[in-house]
Design brief:
heterodimer, A: alpha+beta, six-stranded antiparallel beta sheet, five-stranded antiparallel beta sheet, 12 strands, B: mainly beta, elongated, FHA_dom (chain B), SMAD_FHA_dom_sf (chain B)
């Protein structure tokens, strides 16, 4: 497996915030594999961090093992989509079942669950998978905005025109998600594909960031400080905490420094040449 | 629990708890909250509870409904909003306001919980799940409730604003120019050469080195790797340019 660390830089931080006594967020990132995962756990006592810990650990292990076997860019015969899709979906389903079963068998873990957002980079592309209200943002040039849509009551209300964006900001229902990992034996993660450009900066974050800091301010940090990812991550967490830090806050920042096209096999190249 | 306080000419008439998912207000007796006055329409307005939010809707009443002096058709109510129907006033008290006053621990507020997709049924009867002490009116949370239901806390506790400050360029081509530090984050310097940021925080203004081989000087001394707080009249030297930080 070729490492992507020459092309992709990643950095992440997680913080309990100013109010919560413990941190139920979990993050995993590995530039070598082009993989970043962030989970925001929920439920009873310390079970939230159990759920987010299981989700990030299992997903990271599963995806890394799977892309050793089948490179993520290889198209699948049946779906025509990249292998990344199948791998992410399958590994998220496995993590979901593991959390669900743990919650069923361990009384102290009953009802635990977690949100999840992950990004897998390969072949100048990225496949995102998310469940719940943890987000993926992108800064491209001067343009900054979310690539994911929350699975939340507020987003549904927005989609149905029942609430204005301004009312959504003032709503007390910010904490209601409509999908979570580990709650049901079945789960439908949302997967999306994006092409990736050199210079892009990606941000995975828990709602502790985007509930406390305006998108415009998050974008300003990324565009100003993206040359220094650790500083940008610290800055984002500090802003969330300065604004009250009412929730755990986690960020993973990813900057694309070089192109990272996948190496095709001789046969694939020959086929491409014949077909072209 | 959210409630309304009905008053007329400054006299409190009654307190009305919002215990149902939908509460109607009007002159006719079948309304949940009846106001027997000719300026109030038969079916005048409706309140809908969605999660912890309360929406007010005017039912095409003859004389209209106002919130804080503004006519409204449908609006999310905020704690302390004053709803007016004719001469009658209804003060809206959000659910969390009472709890917060009672000193409920912050920790319990706003923890994430799951609701089942499609579970939002504004007309469904309230069925408070066993796990959640307290009302969870309009959604069916069932066994997926993780934590206490959300209590309304004031949205994003407004951070104390730092005093207004600015920097004035002392040397170079832009000498004499001033820049107000209005943004939370202002970058200084030349990308690729030397860049620093000044961040505005509730406690003051901080300078942090971002890129370049050398870090900026403050009063002739090189700053560390960490952010450093600026004091009034500090002189910053960055990419060969001197500038002064000052509070306005």
């Amino acid at each position: 497996m070729k490492t992507l660390a020459h092309a992709i830089e990643m950095y992440g931080l997680t913080d309990a915030g100013m109010v919560r006594s413990h941190n139920e967020d979990a993050i995993v990132f590995e530039a070598d594999s082009g993989l970043a995962i962030l989970a925001d756990g929920m439920g009873g006592y310390n079970a939230g961090e159990v759920a987010s810990g299981i989700a990030t650990t299992l997903l990271a292990q599963g995806v890394k093992a799977a892309i050793e076997v089948v490179p993520p860019h290889v198209p699948e015969a049946l779906s025509g989509k990249s292998a990344a899709h199948r791998i992410l979906r399958l590994e998220i389903e496995k993590a979901n079942l593991a959390i669900f079963q743990t919650a069923q068998s361990q009384p102290q873990c009953a009802g635990m669950g977690t949100t999840l957002v992950s990004a897998l980079f390969y072949d100048n592309r990225m496949t995102s998978a998310h469940v719940g209200d943890s987000r993926l943002y992108r800064l491209r040039g001067a343009e900054f905005g979310p690539l994911t849509r929350d699975h939340s009551l507020l987003q549904e209300q927005l989609d149905n025109g029942l609430i204005t964006p301004d009312e959504a900001r003032r709503s007390q229902n910010k904490n209601l998600v409509t999908r979570a990992v580990g709650i049901d034996p079945q789960l439908d993660p949302e997967l999306n594909d994006f092409e990736v450009q050199v210079g892009d900066v990606y941000l995975l974050c828990s709602d502790g960031l985007n509930d406390m800091v305006d998108d415009a301010d998050i974008g300003a940090v990324l565009s100003t400080v993206s040359g220094n990812l650790p500083l940008a991550a610290e800055q984002l967490i500090q802003m969330a905490n300065d604004n009250g830090g009412r929730d755990n806050v986690s960020v993973i920042l990813i900057r694309i420094n070089r192109s990272f096209a996948a190496e095709r096999s001789l046969w694939a190249r020959l086929f491409g040449w014949l077909a072209g | 629990m959210a409630k309304l306080i009905l008053s007329l000419d400054g006299m409190v008439l009654r307190e009305f708890k919002l215990e149902k998912n939908t509460v109607t207000i009007g002159r006719k007796p079948h309304n949940d909250l009846q106001i027997d006055n000719l300026a109030v329409s038969g079916e005048h307005a409706r309140l809908s509870m969605i999660g912890a939010d309360v929406f007010l809707e005017d039912l095409d009443s003859t004389n209209g409904t106002q919130v804080n002096g503004q006519p409204v058709k449908r609006q999310l109510l905020q704690d302390g909003d004053l709803v007016e129907l004719g001469k009658y006033k209804l003060k809206f008290m959000a659910e969390g306001a009472a709890k917060a006053a009672a000193g409920a621990p912050q920790e319990d507020f706003e923890k994430t919980m799951v609701i089942r997709p499609g579970g939002v049924k504004p007309t469904a009867p309230a069925a408070p799940p066993a796990a959640a002490p307290g009302p969870t009116p309009s959604y069916r949370a069932g066994d997926t409730v993780m934590e206490l239901p959300p209590a309304a806390t004031p949205a994003a506790a407004p951070a104390a604003e730092a005093r207004a400050a600015a920097i004035k360029v002392l040397s170079g081509a832009n000498a004499g120019k001033a820049l107000d530090l209005v943004k939370n984050l202002t970058s200084l310097g030349k990308p690729g050469v030397q860049v620093a940021i000044i961040t505005k925080r509730p406690t003051g203004y901080f300078i942090t080195h971002v890129e370049g081989p050398s870090r900026p000087l403050v009063n002739g001394r090189q700053i560390g790797v960490q952010a450093e707080e600026l004091s009034d009249r500090d002189v910053i030297e960055l990419a060969g340019v001197k500038m002064e930080f000052f509070y306005k």
